[in-house]
Design goal:
By secondary structure, the chain is mainly α. It is built from 17 helices and no strands. The longest helix has 32 residues.
């Protein structure tokens, strides 16, 4: 069959598969940012604190990061569609629990645990299915453009939609909205056909899964403890690093013994993929870190309500939407590395504008230019970085690299929220100063991402990398 003859089948896959997959990425990203504008409402309704709500938000992101690698591996054993559908059901249960929560504990159970576990199960199949179905880099870039764009839009519109629903009805209704979207995705997802049959006999590295999850949780827990106990913070950071070191020693040991590890060490031998993973981590750290810091600042210092706070984030939404809509056209005209470089430069300029422009200005609209630039920059580079990572490996490693990629991205989200949020919340007595420090930290994270992008090869592969020999273990 010729390439031309094969295109209708790809188009059919685009129509049937990409809609539920893109919606799934949208709602998961939405969940990561929509609570930011509800902080005051949740705090008052559940009789908790800003720190309590921050812990709930960060734990949601952290659970996703901690379980994304094991969940990505399970797709090989259970099948991509099955993991996707199970994840949706668990997520929906969590949304309902969150809507009905009488206190912070149940909210953490529903939002942080159930929604976090559900997201970890359903997101790897989104990227695995897309990579397998769209084999050439141009069509795959378009598919990732839609999915990554919906992810960015979900994160950017989370404050706006969440603010509208919270002000018009209640913060609890925002979780009902999530549950309804999940029902729609479940109905649309029935048409998904898994192109690769599951292998129930595929081994699963339980010890590796526990070590990887525990290491990430303890590491981010150390960051969250920074505003309470510096000794505890240091202990947790060291313990987390040691657990992760133990994880890498474990998977090397299993490989040498001829057993399949949770994560192949071969994934870390690809320099291009490693650098692109750093850029993904930095992108989501900046996006979620900025969203949390600006939201808390507007609500606790400027005393804006949920809808007023959400409306300000329209600028970021517009920026991401415009750049995401242009993603396919940009991919045809520019190299992926060029787009990532431009994206980081625009984003860093946006953070600096956000820091300088609002100083001394009482109107919250002074946040708009910086947020627009941040949204535009992130929208330009989200798709290329995902495509570079996924395209670096063959079909047999897509479960592992998808889990690793999503874990790194969500770890960035949790680290951005934890570091920048902790700096701001700990210094609310002098909010302007702590706001400035938090934004400077985000600039530094953006510069790290820019540095990783500069180190990428100038000529990234522009051919189908999913051939049988591509990316095989050495």
């Amino acid at each position: 069959m010729t390439a031309a003859a094969g295109r209708p089948a790809v188009s059919e896959s685009l129509r049937k598969v990409l809609v539920p997959l893109a919606l799934a990425q949208f709602i998961c990203s939405f969940a990561g940012s929509n609570m930011n504008v509800m902080i005051t409402d949740i705090k008052d309704d559940l009789h908790t604190s800003v720190q309590g709500v921050q812990v709930c938000i960060t734990l949601f992101l952290l659970v996703m990061a901690a379980l994304m690698i094991p969940a990505g591996k399970l797709t090989d054993r259970w099948g991509r569609k099955r993991c996707f559908m199970i994840g949706l059901v668990i997520y929906g249960i969590g949304a309902v629990l969150s809507a009905l929560s009488p206190g912070l504990g149940v909210l953490i159970l529903g939002n942080s645990i159930f929604e976090g576990v559900g997201t970890a199960l359903l997101i790897p199949p989104v990227y695995i299915l897309t990579t397998i179905l769209f084999r050439d880099i141009k069509s795959r870039a378009q598919a990732f453009g839609l999915i990554s764009g919906m992810g960015g839009i979900g994160a950017a519109t989370g404050p706006l939609i969440g603010g509208l629903i919270t002000t018009a009805i209640s913060w609890r209704a925002a979780f009902v909205f999530q549950a309804l979207i999940i029902v729609i995705i479940l109905l649309l997802g029935r048409s998904i056909i898994d192109p690769v049959p599951p292998d129930p006999t595929r081994p699963f590295d339980i010890v590796g899964a526990v070590l990887s999850a525990a290491g990430l949780v303890v590491l981010v827990g150390g960051i969250l403890a920074a505003d309470q106990n510096l000794v505890l913070m240091a202990v947790l950071l060291v313990a987390g690093a040691l657990i992760l070191a133990g994880f890498f020693a474990w998977i090397r040991r299993r490989e040498r013994a001829g057993k399949e590890p949770l994560l192949s060490t071969g994934l870390f031998r690809n320099r291009t993929s490693n650098l692109a993973l750093v850029t993904q981590n930095a992108q989501w750290a900046v996006l979620l870190g900025t969203s949390f810091v600006v939201s808390v600042y507007l609500q606790t210092v400027r005393h804006y309500n949920a809808i007023q706070t959400g409306v300000i984030f329209t600028a970021a939404t517009v920026g991401i939407l415009l750049s995401s809509l242009a993603a396919a056209r940009l991919a045809r005209r520019f190299q992926q590395r060029t787009l990532m470089l431009a994206g980081f430069v625009i984003t860093i300029i946006g953070i600096i504008v956000l820091l300088v422009q609002v100083k001394g200005h009482p109107s919250a609209w002074y946040f708009a230019p910086g947020l627009f630039l941040i949204g535009t920059g992130l929208g330009v580079m989200l798709t290329p970085s995902v495509n570079v990572v996924q395209s670096a490996f063959p079909e047999n490693l897509q479960g592992e690299i998808s889990g690793l990629s999503r874990s790194v991205s969500n770890l960035g989200s949790s680290i951005g929220t934890a570091i920048a949020g902790t700096i701001l919340v700990a210094g609310l007595a002098d909010a302007n100063r702590s706001y400035g420090i938090a934004m400077i930290v985000l600039v530094f994270i953006g510069l790290l991402g820019l540095g990783a992008t500069v180190m990428l090869p100038k000529a990234l592969p522009e051919t189908d990398t999913l051939s049988p020999s591509a990316g095989q273990r050495s």
